[in-house]
Design a protein that fits this description.
Layout (H helix, E strand, L loop, with lengths): L10 E9 L6 H10 L4 E6 L3 E6 L11 H6 L2 H17 L11 E7 L4 H12 L12 H5 L3 H10 L5 E5 L4 H15 L4 E8 L5 H9 L25 E2 L1 E9 H6 L6 E10 L9 H15 L8 E3 L6 H15 L6 E3 L2 H4 L6 H9 L2 H4 L1 E2 L23 E2 L5 E8 L3 E8 L2
Parallel strand pairs: 3-7, 4-5, 4-6, 10-11, 10-14
Antiparallel strand pairs: 1-8, 1-9, 2-3, 6-8, 9-15, 12-13, 14-15
Helix pairs in contact: 3-6, 7-13, 10-11
Amino acid sequence: MIAVRPEDHRIVITGVGLTAPNGNTLSEFRESLLCGRSGVTRYETRYFGQTLAGVCGFDQLRHQRRKDLRRGTRAGSIGIYCAHEAIRDAGLDWENVDRSTVGIYIGVTEHGNVETENEIYQIKEYGYDTQFWSHHHNPRTVANNPAGEISLNLGITGPHYTLGAACAAGNAGVIQGVQMLRLGECDLALCGGVSESIHTFGIFASFHSQGALAWHEDPTKASRPFDADRNGIVVAEGGCIFVLERFSDARARGAKIYGEIVGYAMNSDAYDFVLPHPDRQAECIELALRRAGLNPDDVDIVSTHATGTTTGDVQECLALRRVFGDGGPTRFNNTKSFIGHAMGAAGALELAGNLPAFQDRVCHPTINLDRLDPECDLPGLVANQPREMPKVDVVLNNSFGMLGINSVVIVRRV
């Protein structure tokens, strides 16, 4: 690791690896967002039965052996796939990278539920005799597992850990990567978020008991943020990992640069377990803008967090109106309408899906917006069809979570 100079505080994205319910590369994902292709499908899970979910279809054996898959976790497998694809996309000479200088910072909403549910289900067949409990359970369920599986697979000996930040976790992973690069704790950061949420029946049962689980006869229309007929969350799995570098390092090796992370913020509502607080969300956005040295009118695209719940969408719209006013050049979109809510991966996937706008100058839409809720009537909301823009220089990414955790990341075109 090198001593960090003030000019090295510029941090850029040079690689993106992802798997989403509607794409396993950034180009596939972006194409789906521009052509309106949903990744939500019918899904059945034990005890709960038929529901809807965003399900990924990446090649698990591209970077792992079957033995690794049996021993590891779905979240770990998603993380390994995304990390490999991000490194390849960044054009790194991986064989000659000093892996002790690479940090891994992965956001998660929860971890361990899937494995514990699976073990209890298995020992039920043996009269709940715990001698049949898997000896792999502990390493599968420790909180650092997804990041640790990436470290083991890629031989990375720098720091690795996960950040539990509810549905703000994807942004939190990115923020941690930026901070550690600026501190000189690593020279390369693999960061973002992963989610295996659809593999635990408990998450479906819990959202259902809250009256917050979406349903629609046509699965592709179930996730409908801002729509008057929205009826809840579609749970999704997925992952997105970025390669972050100092701008000076990226420029020296001639790397392509997706964008520069110029602002970020995290704060807490300190208000309610579930219901968000629009004033605290607005304050988080305003803090990120101040750190970036930007005004609201400088933002071209806001990627909204909106999940499709009745109250959550309205609260975020109140926050956005407070910051951006009742009119201006900013456009607003939403990615969950395509893939559902990928929990810990949501913020990272939503940021990734908007990065190509720096080049193609198109804002992808919110789909399934057939009857706009008047309380969600944001000026500049892009509905159902992509919107060409005269320029896209700044993207602001909202990501909020339960227990009142808020995060914002701002990326600028280089």
